[in-house]
Fold these 4 entries.
Entry 1:
Amino acid sequence: MNHIIISEFFMTQLGGIDAYVFPMKVKDLLPIYYVAVRGRDNIEGAVQRVLNKRRIGSIKSFILEGNMFFNSFILNWTDKNYPLTAENGSLKIPRVSSAAQVIDGQHRLEGLKQAVEEKREIGEQAVTVVLVQNLTTSDAARIFLNINTEQKPVPNSLVYDLFGEVRSKDYYIVRAKDLATKLHVDPESPYYQCIKMPGAAQGVGKVDLSTVVNALKQFTTDSGVFAEYHIDDFELQYRIICNYFHVIKHYYEEEGLWLKASNPFMGNSGCYAAIEFLCKDLIPKCAEKKSFEKKTIQNLLPLDEAGLLDRDDLKNKQGKEQRSVVYQYLKSALLKDVPTQDEYKF
């Protein structure tokens, strides 16, 4: 077995876990790592979130501009057939493909991989690695949460994805609030900076945070639509919501109306009704097709065929009536896909 020989390393304990710390060339690191995504990969240590392509592209550009990382990469060696060995003052790492599971640094590693494909000499540079061996999922989650809660913020409901048994009785409200908050702070969101957050200056935001949370929370319970279709991961739930609103935005943006006051989806009633329609009607349809991609949603919702709903269509109506108008508008677009009576077989 061919090995990567690390002559400069030290061994320590971090939170009671044995770890090797050392510099390593990028070209040696890239072939041996892999990413285990929680909710997708049924293996020990799977705690990572789904990769964000935009973030990877940004990291790749950062590296190609001549930068390198000073913070460490944390990996878990999982190949029990070829274990790590330390002897004669050297750490021997078997050259085994996909044997080191990423605990922290997955986006940086993917960015490095793409940068090396364009500029091979980057592979000769060194990064700092913290390497542990055969972690349980619990230990991997503890390290991941330590990094992502103590050092940088992540949604509170991430804890529920990692440790379902510690959920509080109002976990579904926490999840709804985290989803709503990400819609506001994510630059890729159709509602970026459009949700009125607590403490925001008057006039900032178009849809109340409480409206989005109240619309979502009935669907984030154990009996809600996400659980019904086994979509439990926070990032996947967010992606569905984001893709859906991107489709609606597409139609309104073509007319230059998305951020205008005439757009009913930039108001409380329209946004609430849109979320209700998504969860009651659209998610089951997408689940049948096994796709929540924008293209699938756009095919199911040809809003341009019937004309766009305007805020004037909600005039002289109360909140519930307004929500009903928006809901029926979306549902009528979805029902265009339903066969006529003559097309059914009896």
Entry 2:
Amino acid sequence: MRNFSIVFNTVFKEAVKTKAYLYITIGLVALSLLLFVSPTIMKVFTKNSPDETYKIVNQTSLEPSEKELTGLGGSWKIVDNANIEDLKEDIKAEELTGFFVLEEQANMMQLDIYMPKVNNEVLLTLESYIEQKKVASIVATQSVDTNVLQALNTPLQSSVQPLYETEPNAWIIIYGLITIMFFSISVYGTNVATAIASEKSSRVMEVMITKVAPVPMMYGKILGIGLASLTQLFIFIGALLLWANVGIFEVPEGSVVQTVMETITWGTAGYILIFCTIGYFIYATLFAIVGSMVSRPDDLSGATMPIVILLMASLTVELLFVTDSPEGMMTNITSYIPFTAPMSVIIRIVYNTISPVEIVVSLFVMISFIALFAAIAAKIYPKGVLKSDSLTFKQLIQFNR
């Protein structure tokens, strides 16, 4: 135990003292702060932006109102005749946001749009307004009952209803969490393999092996680097919870910030830390074995490729199947596969589609897998680090017979 603690403390201190670690940690805190400040920043820029100005060249019998159009947003002006080329130059000089030419041909309305970038919201609103004016004109000429006119002009009321007991913007948090987990596992798992391969190539391992047993050394490195990774994740989530509870930031209704505050509770944060830890250990053991197999760090890119492919395949499954259907059959299956379970369970926790019993069963499956693989790694790792040249899995298996 003493040898393990020495390796663990040394690896952890070396990891957290690097400049890269410090910069990444500061960057994560700044990112969490930027998330909460962003609504205020966007509000400032929105206030300072110039009003949108539009013109309508009306060549029909309709009588649109500038006052009614202004209620749709922006500043509107209606002209009967105008030079199209002159209006185009106004747009190029940024004196005009856009203009429309409304024509009537064979009892049909034609709307020509001139905008550098079509604003679909403005366009749909204008088209609806023109349709209402057209119906009102027909009703007036045909002496149609006003009640019929009111029924024709009554818009359809629609609203998006959530499928799950969570915020509509929760998918943004989901993508952020699985992205953070993916990069944490890949970066810090690679760091485990690199640290082992570097010591092996420099012959430091041969000296260390006489003082510290290989298995405590392996777990000391995995846990030391893992704790450094979790410290960063804890700082990031802690910063989010801090900004959410200090009450100094303006949180607009329906914004992403509000979703973060309502989704990332203390309980959810605890689950995220637990499953990120387990996900790291599942892959870190594989990286440790691969690091013991190569003779120098330059060979790691090819040796770790199967692990990276497995990790990317797990991420692809999450993005293609689990995020879109957190209650589907594929999601239930991936919740019990050790390589995909950490991400799948976190997604289901955020969407409230998993029961406590399922969480416990998934944890049991993953921990059992870690214990099994750790036992295998404990036999393979010592043989790998004592060989100065690169080894294959077949050779390692033969050594343990």
Entry 3:
Amino acid sequence: MTLLSRSGSPASPGSPVQELTDDRLQEAGVRLLLKRDDLLHPTVPGNKWRKLLPNLAAARAAGQDAVLTFGGAYSNHLRATAAAGREAGLRTIGVVRGDELRDRPLNPSLAQAAAWGMELDFLDRTTWRARMSEAVLDSLLRRHGVALVVPEGGSNALGVRGCVALGRELADSGADLVCCSVGTGGTLAGLAAGLGTGQRAVGFAALTHAPLDTETEALQQRAFGGCTPNWRIEDGFCFGGYGRTTPELTAFAADFRSRHGISLDLSYEAKTLFGVYAGLGAGDFAPGTTVAVVLAG
């Protein structure tokens, strides 16, 4: 499956929906659907696919041959951007948080991005905090040449609008509630805008150090000129913050893999599904409710 059509427009694939069978679900009288966005593409899965495609198309339309974006040392977004750019024939530049990493061997995530042709640039943590300022961006573009700048996670207006299709694909699924993990707010912002009448979205925060409600509202404003009222963010299942876990979360993910044959990302989807199952145990869902959970990959 290619990332861009021959005209340079984004391809528009859908992802399958899988219903889980589980004694806990049956006891609660709740249906649980998994929206398998992790199966959209072998190297550019899920929300990365949906957010990057419109940005790649915009770069092509503007006659640009490069995309510059940002991420941490283990960023799935950087790796996905490298893969997407390679397939689309665009040069990619990955700006990495932490100049102390420059002289170290590359970890597997950055090594794979580099192997796919991404140019890596490391910023010290003070400069990183000002990474979207005019001064820092000018410096980066002087070093690397003209490029379309895409924020961390791919969450800009283009990326948000790319996630609207995710909600539309679930509009006729029968889901009353759609849950997804939240890191930057872009997926939730677009997903909520695409849902059908009466459907609601809940974003499960994967980190603790960002005002995700405010950021999601701002993304909807930039993408659509207003906010939809059909979403909220649950911040009670962060497990200490981004990239952190606990024995309880690890045990949950192992049990889920044993029951359903699906490995969950401990930084994102494991937290979301842990929260959903906690809600089952607490009686948060009325019998007859259908819940869909997005597996972004």
Entry 4:
Amino acid sequence: MSVNLATMLREGTKKSHTMAENVGFVKCFLKGVVEKKSYRKLVSNFYFVYSAMEEEMTRLKDHPVISKIYYPELNRKESLEKDLYFYFGSDWKEKIELSSAGKDYVNRIREIAKSEPELLVGHSYTRYLGDLSGGQILKKISQSAMNLSDGEGTAFYEFENISDEKAFKNEYRQSLNELPVDMATAERIVDEANDAFGKNMEMFQELEGNLIKAIGMMLFNTLTRRRSRGSTELVTAEQ
């Protein structure tokens, strides 16, 4: 039995998608406010999340459902390793750690891979289609906000093995619609996709404190410099 899972996922995750875009960290990011320390922590979390998801999907590549959406060209682990090398140096593996929200995310991926592998479809859809859809925009924002040269620290957004992203997304959606799942399973996949959005939001929210501190420090430094200049100008005028 086939269902229109692509449409179900698009319509069923609209609210979650909007909520994710309105998390403070994401709103700041989309407006070009990106603090490198917070960003590299996000990249670290993504490394663990994608590693878990890609390991499980590779293990399950012959599964009747997972096999239909198993596209190795989507894998992000290696590109994230390049970015981590850029942000942390050659010993990046010793420097990165998984946050609390990141652990919950990874644990959920591992859990369903064992108990209900078909639910991994919800995680694949949430992350990969989002990466393909907004990747180039986010890449440009990152480069501009952190003064990055082309090819530095933004490998995550590059899909070198996908020449036509629009065509690929259409193929992926068609594969979703051809999955051998019934309506009840399709609904559980949509629920899992919403949960994946929630897991992402929790990771973003963890970073808000660091971002607010960084923005506050930048404002403080700016005001301090202005006051210092003002005091100098005042003394000069009085003389």
